[in-house]
Amino acid sequence: MSTTSKLINPALRSALHLNSSKGVTPAMAKSAAAYLSSAPSGGVHALPDLPYDYAALEPAISAETMELHHSKHHNTYVTNLNASLEKLDAAVSSGDVSGIIGLQGALKFNGGGHVNHTLFWENLCPKGSSEFPTSGVLKDAIDARFGGLEEMKAELGAMTVGVQGSGWGWLGYDAKTGRIEPATCANQDPLAATTGLVPLLGIDVWEHAYYVDYRNLRPKYVSAIWDIINWVLLSSLSGHSDNSVVDKDNLEMLTKERLSKNMNRVMACVS
Amino acid sequence: MRISIALMSLPAASAWSTLTMKQSGVNSSRRDMLQKGAALATSIAIPASANAYAVPDLLYPFEALEPYIDAPTMKIHHDKHHATYVANINKATEGKPEVDILDLQLNALEAGPVRNSGGGHYNHAFFWDEMAPPDQAAKTKPSPELEAMINKSFGSFDEMKAAFEAQAAPGAVFGSGWVWVCLSSDGEELKIVGTPNQDNPLMKGVADEVMFPILGIDVWEHAYYLKYQNRRPEYVSNWWNVVNWDKINENFTYVTEKKAGVPVRG
């Protein structure tokens, strides 16, 4: 698998953050709206390439898990999202309100599955390639909410382990308070649409994310995943990875810039 | 007499790695686990109170459902997943009066942790006993009474299977859960219901009405992932090969007469 392929369609990223970011430009909003309502004529959703090889996250996540997770599970969400959008298009065209409403579950599940996994791949990188920053906006935000990185891992980790059945743990940005918050969502419910938080970091705790490697030991998987979090990406997206400016307002920047930054930044952590 | 052994091999993870087993009737695999457990244990609980729930032994060996359900899946599903629900329901009900696990289901939604762990115990205990090795299962079929009810409710046996498989598809039960064939509360018809996580139709508030399951399949990924990975529909269609219709007939007779859930072992 190529390590230079583009990771995420910028329009999808725009779409994800429309809900809670004030800094979205009209052009971007239009693009995002078009993306979310895309029918085949407007371009179908596609499975994004990973910015690393399937084996790159070992030993935390095996190549077998990554291949299944990406090429089968994520791909199925993409396929079914496209199918659901086609049906939505037809229902909208014919004014079939009942049909439109009936598609909401499938859109939430498959659209959420596509959004969540796209973010997830970006959140991860090979062990040892991305140290948590010793200063800067991300560290400040985590210190302010949790008291420190280890405390964040403990709180978010416990919440994530505690998800009943299938779901996700998240670290998200609350635009109203300017703070970051931990959260969990069931199944493939997307964070932004469900809670209003802007997703920064997601941890997939569907059994398919860890069963090959950890079986029933979900806590072991969640502990291991901290070794492969792409902190460089999360903090560099703030635009202040040089730490020249550290300001609470920069947290807003952190989320805004996730809308528009060139995703090639993630490559810096892979080389 | 039962004992609980907590494997505190992970910080804050006891709930996920706790085994509960009967002291008597320990077979070789359980003895092996017991030894490993003892080696890892940092704390051995005192004998649990008399009302402690227990993981029922399977009525068949782990490999008996091959090739449709593989032995490694059966072993981990029974010895780890089910055992965790049992450990947690024992913890949640510690010191409380003894109540049959069946009787915990009705108000489970109001009872906090009982919903997940109590549901998990009931559901899995129900699941093990409705299955049999494929050569035995193949000799069983719905009784005339059940067949008549299936035809009345769904049109035909094949239509019931199709509706059940559709409900068990990934896009119907969106995450982890179960799919059931139940007798309606008035006993007039059979219905197919999907329930999330460890909920079941015996729990008030889960479905439109309380219903009585006669057949149910676990569609959590742990039930099939080692063999089928993302291919849940293949697991579901193969599962019919291990359904013991003698037991389903028995369940149907019971719920029809009693208008109550089927009791389970454990």
Contiguous uncertain segments of 5+ residues of chain A? 1-11, 13-42, 238-248, 254-271
Question: Roughly how many Å apart are the termini of chain A?
Answer: 14 Å
Number of helices of chain A: 12
- Quickly give the CATH architecture of the largest domain in chain A: 3-Layer(bab) Sandwich
Task: Output the CATH homologous superfamily of the largest domain in chain A.
Answer: Iron/manganese superoxide dismutase, C-terminal domain
> Which whole number gives the mean pLDDT of chain B?
85
- Tell me the Rg of chain B in angstroms: 18 Å
The global form of chain A is globular
CATH topology of the largest domain in chain A: minor pseudopilin epsh fold
- Assign the CATH class of the largest domain in chain B: Alpha Beta
Strand content of chain B: 5-15%
Characterise this structure.
The complex is a heterodimer of chains A (271) and B (266). Helix content of chain A is 49%, strand content 8%. Chain A has helices spanning 10-17, 26-36, 63-93, 97-102, 104-123, 137-146, 149-161, 191-195, 211-214, 218-225, 231-236, 249-260; strands at 167-174, 179-186, 198-204. Chain A has a three-stranded antiparallel beta sheet with strand order 2-1-3. In chain A, a hairpin with a 4-residue loop joins β1 and β2 (179-186). The longest helix of chain A is centred in the N-terminal third of the chain and has 31 residues, at 63-93. Chain A is globular. Chain B has two domains: 1-48, no CATH class; 49-266, minor pseudopilin epsh fold (3-Layer(bab) Sandwich). Chain B has nine helices and six strands, in the order ββαβαααααβββααα. In chain B, α2 (71-92) packs antiparallel against α3 and α5 crosses α6. The relative contact order of chain B is 0.14. Chains A and B meet through α3, α5 and α10 of A and α2 of B. Chain A: Pfam families: Sod_Fe_C, Sod_Fe_N. Chain A: Residues 45-124 form the Manganese/iron superoxide dismutase N-terminal domain. Chain A: Belongs to the iron/manganese superoxide dismutase family. Chain A: InterPro entries: Fe/Mn_Superoxide_Dismutase, Mn/Fe_SOD, Mn/Fe_SOD_BS, Mn/Fe_SOD_C, Mn/Fe_SOD_N, Mn/Fe_SOD_N_sf, SOD_C_sf.
